Amino acid sequence: MSNPSFVVIGSGMAAFGAAYRLHSEGISPVMFDKNSYHGGHTTSFKNEGGFIFDMGPHISYTKDPRIQEIFADSVDQKYETIQIYLNNYWRGHWPQHPAQLHLHGLPHDIVVKVISDFVEEKNAPERTVRNYADWLYASFGKTFSETFPMQYTKKYHLTAAENLSTDWLGPRIYRPSLEEVLLGALSPTAPHVHYVTNFRYPTAGGFVRYLTKFVPLGNLKLGHELTAIDPNSHELSFANGVTARYDQLVSSVPLPELIPMIKGAPSDVVDATRRLACSTCVLVNLGINREDISKAHMTYFYDEDMCFARLGFPHMLSTQNAPPGMGSIQAEVYFSSKYKPFTGKPEDWIEPVIRDLRRCGLLRDEDQIMTKEARLLKYANIIFDLERAEAVKTVHAYLDDIGISYCGRYGEWGYLWTDESFKSGEKAAERALSGALTQR
Ligand SMILES: Cc1cc2nc3c(=O)[nH]c(=O)nc-3n(C[C@H](O)[C@H](O)[C@H](O)COP(=O)(O)OP(=O)(O)OC[C@H]3O[C@@H](n4cnc5c(N)ncnc54)[C@H](O)[C@@H]3O)c2cc1C
Q: Is residue 85 one of the residues assigned to a domain?
């Protein structure tokens, strides 16, 4: 048999993780991406005003020294290391993040209720945790849960906490002790306990620069949208009429798009795919004529009447992300085809975002908006609703059966950060390599 051909679909973190692993075995895969640029969700754009925006706020906070080294090498060690500062906005107040440890400055009646509920919950019999809502009540008590994380859940996950599982939490939400809550209520300077303390970001060119050294590892063909896979003949068809054969296939294509394009996919698998939920994000990117917009790198918004769930300030990640003296804001407004379908055009959200930025005081009347644009991220965050685990199991079992190695955030259908997506690509490449060995 001649050398097996390895094909990788995508050119984001996962696809390049796969290319990186294959390259270490002396294999250069053929890579296809539907876009005219590489990077997927980790791409970055410079607009005509000279502002650089990523596809959603991207910072690297991996604690894995191997990945830190690989990424650092990809930018020739030219990266910023920044101590993170995050805060929250709630009805005119700006508590530091996480809010459960920074109640200082909030209205007294709220602080008193949060603490008394917290104590009551600690003394109550242990709850059975069936969903995220139970977990929140058990961790924080009723008032805090319903005022903060449950509100945020509706904006960010687009469904109620009762409809979410807890298998995505990991270290994401801090469970404080009573002493920590009290200290944060009494003092404006409670300790920083977020799971991210420092992060790295490329000095020049935006987050996509982390991919620079991976691009030559494969034979990358852009503008190739995969439309059909025949798992029997191992043939791939693309929207531009090109066809290709594979011996081993690694895919980072989102599962809801991958499964329907597989010839002969069983109906129960197609049905399972329909139950998978994901958020869609409208990103509104603004260039502003001053840089002292915020002291936080990111702010979470809880109020229902504020259209965005989160704001990022790209000029604070690298001074090269904005022209000198200028600043930038990236707002995230969330939808979900399963829970809150997006209609209209991304641009429809530019004015509502500007209105709410003025209402919360981040934009002043005299500020000049130098550039404004909106983009749509069809796939943003996986929603861990109660249907997810079973549906993902069904879909993955089928892909394993037909020998397609799925990877990345939308192949694994999980809450993967960039480092995890890269490693997921490496693992998929390992599966493809052992598949090639058994084929011989
Ligand atoms: C709003 C937001 C903020 C985030 N912030 C952070 C952060 O701060 N730090 C962090 O570490 N992670 C962050 N992440 C997560 C990070 O973006 C992902 O972990 C990572 O980018 C996923 O990489 P991937 O390769 O799995 O997917 P993708 O980047 O989506 O790559 C998939 C690729 O497949 C291609 N493709 C899809 N369909 C086809 C087809 N039919 N034919 C050909 N090609 C196709 C796509 O064009 C794309 O290039 C964030 C994600 C979002 C949405």
A: no
Q: Are residues 249 and 179 in the same domain?
A: no
- Domain presence at residue 155: yes
Which structure tokens are listed for 143? 């008032």
If you take atom 8 of ligand 1, which residue's CA is the nearest one?
58
Number of helices and strands (H, E) in the chain? Answer: 13, 18
Pinpoint the alpha helices (H) of 287-333: none
DSSP per residue over 244-270, as a string?
EE-SEEEE-S-HHHHGGGBTT--HHHH
Domain span holding position 180: 98-186
Q: Which atom of ligand 1 is nearest to the CA of 410?
A: 26
DSSP annotation of 233 reads: T
Reference 409, options 269, 254, 277, 281; nearest CA is 254
pLDDT in tens, 352-401: 999 999 999 999 999 999 999 999 999 999 999 999 999 999 999 999 99
CATH, residue 268: 3.50.50.60
**pLDDT tens string 11-20:** 999 999 999 9
Which amino acid is present at 259? Answer: I
Alpha helices in 148-234 (DSSP H): 149-156, 178-186
Which of 37, 58, 172 gets mutated to test ligand 1 (max ligand atoms within 8 A of its CB)? 58
The answer to whether 121 touches 130, Cβ cutoff 8 Å, is no
In this structure, the residues whose C-beta lies within 6 A of any atom of ligand 1 are 9-15, 32-35, 40-42, 56-60, 225-226, 252-253, 257, 281, 332, 377, 380-381, 408-410, 416-418, 421
Distance 329 CA to ligand 1 centre (A): 21
Domain count for the chain, please give it. 2
Ligand 1 atom with the shortest distance to the CA of 407: 26
Per the DSSP assignment, residues forming a β-bridge with 60 are 200
Task: Assess whether 180 and 226 both reside in one domain.
Answer: no
